[in-house]
Amino acid sequence: MPTTFQTYVDFIKNIFVYNFNNIDDVWNELRELPLGYGSGFGSMSDVNFSEVAGYMNMEKNIKNPLFSFMLYTDNYIKVLSSINSFLIDISRIFQDMIIFSGDEMKIIELPAGYVTGSSLMPNKVNPDFLEIFQGYAAKSIALMNLLYSGVINKTTGYHRDFQILKDEIIPFMIELKGIINGFPDLFSGIKFNNEASEKIIGNSIYATYNSKLNFKTNGNWKESYKMTGDMIKSGKILRSYMPEDIISYKNFDFIGDRINENISFIDNGKKKLLKMVKDVVSEDKK
Questions:
Q1: Neighbours of 5 (CB within 10 A)
Q2: For residue range 60-109, what is the model confidence (pLDDT) as tens digits?
Q3: Is the pTM of this model over 0.70?
Q4: Cα gap 176→93, rounded to integer Å
Q5: Terminal CA-to-CA distance of the chain, rounded, Å?
Q6: d(CA 90, CA 69)
Q7: C-alpha dist (Å) from residue 210 to 201, 218, 236
Q8: CB burial class (10 A; 0-12, 13-18, 19+) of residue 232?
Q9: What gap in Å lies between CA 183 and CA 87, rounded to an integer?
Q10: What are the beta bridge partners of residue 109?
Q11: Does 184 have pLDDT greater than 90?
Q12: All domains of the chain, ordered by start, with CATH?
């Protein structure tokens, strides 16, 4: 069945909104102060960690140190799971774009900065950025397996090999951020070839629509599809139709507002932490 360019664009918007909300939910769960659990067995420090949490604009609601430490690895799993969901969805969209921009279809043209030429075939265009992103999506899945393998069957409390998980995941997040920073120019720079898209629409793409028309007459879906199939085999032109644009999101302003709120939250935490340090230093000088 045919679909419109605007409907497909709206599909991409839905993917971004859906995954942003998932990641934002996880972000809000990370506001619990990750200090004071002493590797799962409690802290001997005289520090009031609830007060520290207040200084850092965070929360300190969990009292049990074993449970608090269990969140150390659980939070990695939550964060990476939400990111993987996003990467998998985008990798599928990018595979569409690789096909859409290929020689057989050419219904879209990718921005020049995101493709390279071929040394063997001068007219060939390689969608390097899209394929590199798909590689990062695969790497993220591999890191998820590493994370699960590193945690499963471990006793409660801290284990030294948990450092390996952190040393692998944090650098990957930094690299991934650099890749995602290229999204705005990629999506805004894609050109749609309306003429090419109309040429690739084959007669059989209207099969379901014509079967529905037949069903209204005979009330039998199986017979309706057979009638349509016979029409296609005999070379008859099926009745065409153009679906309406389906638009769910016209703008992303609410996402920008939410991101600014989160940035403000972090900045306020930094300011409170600096104030705490200054207060401690001033008290020591007295």
A1: 13
A2: 888 888 888 888 889 999 999 999 999 999 999 999 999 999 988 899 99
A3: yes
A4: 17
A5: 78
A6: 33
A7: 15, 13, 12
A8: middle
A9: 12
A10: 191
A11: yes
A12: 33-63+256-286 (no CATH), 66-201 (1.20.200.10)
